[in-house]
Predict the structure.
Amino acid sequence: MKGKAAVERGKGLTVKAFILSMLASVIIAFWTQHSELVIDSPSFNSIHPSIAGFFAVICISLFINPLLRAIGERWALNQREMLTIYSILIVVGPIVSIGGVHFFLPTLIAPYYYATPENEYAELFHDYIPSWFGPKDPEVIRTFYEGSEGMGVPWEAWIKPLAIWTPFLMAVYFAFICLNVIVRRQWVESEKLTFPLVQLPLEMTRDPERGELFNRFFKNGLMWVGFAIPVVLHGINGTHNYFPSFPFIRYKHINISRYFTDRPWSAMGHTELSFYPCIIGFSYLLTVDVSFSVGFFYLLSKAQLILGDVLGWGRRGSAMSQYYLIEYQGAGAFLAIAISCLIVARKHLLRILRKAFLGSEEVDDSSEPLPYRWAVIGYLLSIGFLTFWSVTAGMSLWAALTFFILFSLFALSLTRMRVQAGLGCVHGPMPIQELMVRSVGAVRLGPANLTILSHYFFMTGEMRGVMSVMPSQLEGFRLAQYTDIDPRRLVLGIVLGSIIGLLLAYFASLRTIYKYGANILNRWRVRSMPTIPFVQLRSWLIDPPEVDWVGLQFVALGAAFTAFLSFMRLRFIWWPFHPIGYAAAFTGRTIHWVWFPMLLGCLFKYLALKQGGARGYRRFQPFFLGLILGDFFMGGFWGLVGLSSDHPGYLLFP
């Protein structure tokens, strides 16, 4: 039996599964560039889990596998193989998008293309940019933005900087793997986090009974009812996108702040209602306190803005701004969540350290994706390499080390929010660079540190980017445990997939950008986002901000309130407010889109539990999984349609 179990565990990363995952990675890499850059359909790999990865598994489960099973049982992929493919693709997805190249590549040349005598970029900070950071040839830079007119990609100018940056990015991704290995057992086995985003792929890929083409999930009528709702909704609206005379159903971005135009109510800013089926579905899978808290604290943040206006905050001459109320509290909340996770896991972490450095036989790490010694030393070496790389580029040792410690804490918080609250689209609070400047002052950091930190904005400006790779990895590890996939083979697949995905992303994205020119591609990804840090850098250098003591008080307030919520939740079972809801609500952009559907999902779950208890919840679960499946299926479907032309694509999300 033991030998048989070992063989079964090895059936995750089979040759067949690896080849298919790499083939899918190639397709996704090129498909993503057309979808997200050319036809401006940014939902393809910018929400998590990746629509592209999900769509691949949907196609295998619904179409490819039944056909192979009809030919012969041995030809079909089993659940372990499908989940291995899925686990690799949800990591590759963000890497070929904003988690790898879309913000990163333009950042390397934006400070040169946008330099003018008026903004004085050249005089202010060009001398602090290492010569090996990116291409310097004016023609290479010009054609990046204006198109190469059929001349192709000037690879000779890009090979050296990409060869230098690739180890940097891979060190970031490997540090994520090591952190995930360190916290996995604590979060999965001790705290029993729900991992809501893995429930649907688990159900979709279950092996059917012998002789059957589909498993029980696909035979559930309630699931197909849920599936039909987003299919009809996106079918109508997607058709309208290509044929404007066709009817349109407004279900998202319903602006309700237009009804509150008088002060102080207008101070709450833009507020909207949306009815995303997948968010409603995911929220149904959460614990009620998490989804309720996201909506509650979002409304509380609006109440704070209104109160702030009444008190005069944010008005001309005021010592405080509305920015303090939201962004600074959010930063404190994120830091507090990460630190509280480490405090709660302190005994587990001590056992890991004993295993890593003393070889303690009391700690069994044989079922972990990496031995604990590898994970601890691997993380330390990764952070050490990233710090050394940054110091070589011109940063001070203390500034580089501070940045990567904060980066690790923010990534840990994001991962916790994803695996506990299913928040696959979190914009994040204020960037780490801003937090550092406000904490020690721009003069203390100096122009060299500020310049390199500004280049790292592609990692911190949006948490949907580079940081989103970490929770995707951990979800793969959770799926491996659910289905007894060999986790160490899975890590090998994820590492190889990350390397191949990054190289594919370089090729596919540069090919697309030089063909069309960045100036006519997706504005946010290749023009706006990469220029933000250098506009900010100019401001810091011309008028250096001092330590922002008022802002730091709000950071402390956010951290203290998060700690209070954590304490109350641990002490009292009835306590309804969750710290993750507070942290998520005090972030930017994406929370405006998801707060209302999360409240709807919370309401539906509450009603199901109240009327039928746990049995009632399980009875209606297929319906809500169907909502998610239909949303992601239509995202892939309209992505395929978009390949046929350069017509603006259909936006599934936001």
Remarks:
- The chain has a mean pLDDT of 89.
